[in-house]
Amino acid sequence: MSDKSFSIIGSYKTKNTVEKVAAVVFIACAFFAVLAVFSITLYMIISGTPAIFEVGLKEIIFGTVWKPNAAQPSYGIFYVILTSIVGTTFAIIIGVPIGVMTAVFLAETAPRRLAGIVKPAVELLAGIPSVIYGLLGILILNPFIYKIEMAVFKDNPNHQFTGGSNLISAVLVLAIMILPTVINISESALKAVPNHYKQASLALGATHIQTIFKVIIPAAKSGIITAIVLGVGRAIGEAMAISLVAGNGANLPLPFNSVRFLTTAVVSEMSYAADTHKRVLFTIGLVLFAFIMLINLVLNKVMKGGKKDADR
How far apart are CA 208 and CA 201, in angstroms? Predict the structure, then answer.
């Protein structure tokens, strides 16, 4: 019986073969990732451009009337684009500070027992399906917002009441939905900051709070910006929950107006759309795709600029 044991690094020839195979596998994975992005981009361009030539870019992007089934159809999505911008912006303004401060709490100040309760709750929040957020919004949030709406507009006979299904409800639901992403990634970034940064700051006489805001958070800035980027992607790409709480009306994005986001415009009408109507929905998808790509490029540039400032 042979006493030799198998080893993957038993000889130079074996090691060289493993290295070559691994290199091929890594290149193939990278190729498929790039191919997927390229294929999606190409498909969106091919599917989204016919309506631009048929209806007109100006009519689609800057038109304010959405009546695809009228005798003289209109395909204006300006209010829909504006709603996505306003809704996502306010969701980020509300959700990001809460998420980052919660991450700071978990990473730096929370007692171990309390952190053991909060952390699983945040992870559970991440696992809740988006339709559940929408249902909870209908049952809890919409009636509350409707009471506020009735109090504000009780003497206004021209106001069209929404039953609480309006921009405010959509923004609040989006802000809650992005919390798990922002909290988890920001917490990981904060915990990745070398401990000697904190020790040096405290040794120089800074308080714990000063150290958190002047040393730890700036050092974790790239990770926090990544959390914001993913939060923006989650907010702008959400459809199911928003379709349940926003009212689905193509109106100007005012707080108590029933509104429609880019995603809900596609989801709510794709099942029965045909001909030009369907092609315009693909154009809306192309606008959404371009919007997300633009946001990612801008935030990545900001993140790289922050790294350069840190290196200086």
Answer: 9
User: 305 pLDDT exceeds 80?
Assistant: no
Classify residue 259 by its DSSP letter: B
Instruction: Give the C-alpha distances (Å, rounded to integers) separating 258 from 178, 195, 239, 245.
Output: 22, 49, 15, 9
Which phi and psi (to 5°) does residue 47 adopt?
Answer: -80, -30
User: Domain containing 207 — which CATH number?
Assistant: 1.10.3720.10
Rounded CA separation 29/169 (Å): 41
Question: Could you tell me which residue, 177 or 17, shows the higher pLDDT?
Answer: 177
- What's the number of domains the chain is made of? 1
Q: Is there a domain that residue 149 lies in?
A: yes
pLDDT of residue 248: 84
Provide the 3-class DSSP secondary structure of residue 164. coil
Token look-up 């294929």 returns: 39
Look up residue 93 and give its two tokens.
Answer: 């303004």
Domain hosting 139: range is 77-311
Domain annotation covers residue 25: no
Tokens of 192: 């990745």
Query: Checking phi first, is residue 248 left (phi over 0); if not, alpha (psi -120 to 50) or beta?
Result: left
Which residue is associated with the tokens 């053991």?
Answer: 116
The Cα–Cα gap between 283 and 225 comes to 29
Residue 250 lies in a domain: yes
**Residue 303 pLDDT > 80:** no
258 located within any domain: yes
| Cβ-contact 234, 246 below 8 angstroms | no
Q: pTM of the prediction? A: 0.83
How many Å apart are CA 168 and CA 216, to the nearest integer?
34
Structure tokens at 178: 């992005």
Kindly report each contact of residues 210-217 with a partner whose C-beta sits within 8 Å and lies 24 or more positions away, as own/partner: 212/104, 212/108, 212/109, 216/104, 216/108, 216/190, 217/100, 217/104, 217/190
Q: Please check whether residue 212 is in contact with residue 198, taking contact to mean a CB–CB distance below 8 angstroms.
A: no
